[in-house]
């Protein structure tokens, strides 16, 4: 019996209402295959696209156990960064490191035009954007309440398409982080920005440099080999 996924992916997603709130509230991350598509859209090399539009994102999550290859013990985190994490309420034994590339942002995502209230790369935007606000994928979520700022959430519900896409995105994200853990971030991307931010609970809490991020990931890998 053939898989229903191709049929589901042909269903139309509910139309974005173009309010721009998600482009303002969130830091938008991107996966390697998405970035390749977006660079082609702007007729740029991936390296040039990254240089112009991207920054490093390091999302951190407190953990009590360090089984995951991207988890690092608090004692191994450089004092400068650990101090920032502590000031923001992290006191766990371990911290999960989730390194990504994402789009630069001031008030809005760099690709959002606040005058026209349009995404300038709408047709090739990342899954994080195209599925929003239905990324969770779980049933029985009150999206209108959870995302009360989003006009789409107040008038629509997730479809079979968005559920399928959300599930697919979870698989792609898991594979991406596995690849980073095994190969190193510098070997997953064609280039890396020199600067970025540490993100905790959806907020930027500190700048971070490329060398600082790679050092953290190296320390996490050393835990795996010891």
From TrEMBL:
InterPro entries: Puta_zinc/iron-chelating_dom (IPR005358). This is YkgJ family cysteine cluster protein. Pfam families: CxxCxxCC. It comes from the Archaea. PANTHER family: PUTATIVE-RELATED, YKGJ FAMILY CYSTEINE CLUSTER PROTEIN.
